[in-house]
Amino acid sequence: MTVNMLYAAALIDPLVQSNFHIVHSVRHAYPLHGHDFYEIFIVISGQCAHLVNGDTQLLKEGSMVFIRPDDTHSYDTLEGEDCRFLNVNFYKEVVEGAFDYIGHAAFAQALRSPRLPPVILLPEADMEALMRKSEQIQLFNSTDKQKARAMARSFLSDALTHFFLHFRNDGTQALPQWFDHLLAQLQRKENFSAGLPRLRELTDRSDGHLNRVFKQYLRMTPTAYLNHLRLGHAKNLLLTTQLPIVDIAYDAGFDNLSHFYHLFKDAYGIAPGKIRNWQ
């Protein structure tokens, strides 16, 4: 069977270094193909069969798949049902640079090395957040290529973060079901912005037990994890809205503005007031 090859030089805008589009049916997708770039796609409705590397992955709404440059794949309906999916392509060097920035060789290897591409299931809120970001990228793509590129890298960072939270070292046990459920609940803005009191409402575990589990599986404290979610939310608002910084800080759950400034600069290496110009 002939395998078509797709090339970044022909398909991806060099100024943006990525492209985004919605595929409304598997009938409109490329037939069996390979490419010299990375691809992330998310099933946004329905279900489909993903034919990849001589095998089949059964995907449903919320499935996010990480395609590597050496993969060959195509799509088919599943049990007579079609699907729509968001398709995102990145220059190879952009993704490799993101791996270098994360600085976790085992995680990068866990995404690159399996015979079948990694798949995770996104909670609805996370899928909707990535969809909103992709829409913003499409808008900027026609008006401001630099902003489109910055937003595309932000999308990539968010997607890789979701994969990282599902990452398992060979010697690491899978997340306990209750903890996995708790983390999914904490992705909601109304939960992470409410801080530790809300976290305690969402589980019957003691503070000591929570501290041990967060450090065991995420290598951070509950407070650090909540701040990570809050800062990500604040960064997204800074990049996509003109809201005053003080309003963004409070919306993300920070009551102390100077503390927000300190944490933001530690996390991103730039002050909140400058990140809009940094795009």
From TrEMBL:
Q: Answer whether the UniProt record assigns the keyword Transcription to this protein.
A: yes
Q: Does the keyword Transcription apply?
A: yes
Q: Where is the HTH araC/xylS-type domain?
A: 180-278
The cross-references to Pfam families, in alphabetical order and at most eight, read:
AraC_binding, HTH_18
Which keywords accompany this UniProt record?
Answer: DNA-binding, Transcription, Transcription regulation
Which residues does UniProt assign to the signal peptide? none
Q: Indicate what this protein is called per its UniProt record.
A: HTH araC/xylS-type domain-containing protein
Give the taxonomic lineage as stored in the record.
Bacteria, Bacillati, Bacillota, Bacilli, Bacillales
